[in-house]
Amino acid sequence: MPNNTDDNTTDCGGLVSATDRGCHLYSFVIYTIVVGLLCLLGFVGNSVSFYVFYKDTVKTSTPFLFQGLSLIDNLLLVTAYPLYGINSFVEYTGRCTGYLKHGYSSIVLVYVYPLASVSQTATVWVTVLVAVNRYVAVCKPYQAPRLCSVRQAKIQLGAVLLLSVLYNVPKFAESYIEYDRDANALRPVHTELGDSFVYMLVYDNVLYLVFMMILPLLILAGLNIRLVRALKELGLKRAEMQSARQQQDNNVTLVLIIVVLVFIVCQTPALANKFMWSVLGEEARACGGFQFYFSRLSNMLVIVNSAVNFVVYFLFNTRFRQVFAQEVCGLCDPGSYMAFQVRQPLTPTIGPTELTPPK
């Protein structure tokens, strides 16, 4: 996740100033309400997306990767809300204060945060994988049968997931939970690794900036530009000269372009926030400071990125809507389902061997 060090824990039993109260309200609105709704709606949307792609009778690599991305995004949403929403709820409402007083939030920080980091890493690089897959299918079609089959997509997805876990293994060793008898509370304790200045500088800052933000954003921006150009070139052909399959393939490319644009818009503020975290002082991160407000917005946008793909699929993916409508009609009324099949026959997605390179 972007940052797990938001100054989100205070003594809930003490008095707070009007400024602190305003900051608690801001965090409550962003993290508890907005992020909570995003996590809930996003989980439902991703689950529906997974089901629709699963029920699609035409199996190609891009929908399969979208299916995997739906599951990974759900893992991110499930782990994100405990990290952000619960603390803000307790601080603002004053309810369930034992959650902070007895250090139960430490369990989330020590054990849930690394899982959230794994899911975020996977989300980033699976998005890159989908973009590379689509680039090969559109711009290198003669290599597509070898590189963009469903079998290859399964291997590639498995490799990304494995590398995402391995990259985040050190996070599981940064701290552990210790029981403080005097305070009757759990508290997180940094290990020697977690206290290492070199480790934090190299792993948590340099590698994070390069491999989690700068590199994937540059790759996605470059691939998106190339895909947009290819789509424009294909669009110059008269619609009647393109088969239904070719038009459907162009539609899949358009969906991927929009998914990548959403990713870039939502992840770029997190990159800026990480830079500010390294440059600005504590006063900027404290209540009332610029980064206090900006970091919460940037973290919220990361959640938006994992919550809105269903909307993108539904609005821009013709085949997704067709399969979705068939499944809804089939569940509600089998007769309507048969009628829909007659009125709206599905057009199969073009396979990699049927692609032609743009001129």
Please give a structural write-up.
By secondary structure, the chain is mainly α. The protein has helices spanning 18-55, 61-93, 98-101, 105-139, 144-147, 150-172, 197-235, 244-279, 282-285, 290-307, 309-316, 318-332, 334-343; strands at residues 175-180, 185-190. It has a two-stranded antiparallel ribbon. A hairpin with a 4-residue loop joins β1 (175-180) and β2 (185-190). α1 packs antiparallel against α2 (61-93). The longest helix is centred in the middle third of the chain and has 39 residues, at 197-235. The two termini are 41 Å apart.
Set out the fold topology:
Elements: H1 18-55, H2 61-93, H3 98-101, H4 105-139, H5 144-147, H6 150-172, E1 175-180, E2 185-190, H7 197-235, H8 244-279, H9 282-285, H10 290-307, H11 309-316, H12 318-332, H13 334-343
Antiparallel strand pairs: 1-2
Helix pairs in contact: 1-2, 1-10, 1-11, 1-12, 2-4, 2-6, 4-6, 4-7, 4-8, 7-8, 8-10, 8-11, 11-12, 12-13
Multimerization status: single chain
Structural class based on helices, strands and sheet pairing:
mainly alpha
CA(first)-CA(last) distance: 41 Å
Number of strands: 2
Biggest sheet, spatial arrangement of strands: 1-2
Q: In angstroms, what is the radius of gyration?
A: 23 Å
- Approximate shape: globular
Percent range of helical residues: over 70%
Strand percentage lies at: under 5%
Supply the number of helical segments. 13
Give average pLDDT, whole number. Answer: 81
Unreliable residue runs: 7-15, 334-359
Give, in order, the helices and strands. HHHHHHEEHHHHHHH
Largest sheet: 2 strands, antiparallel
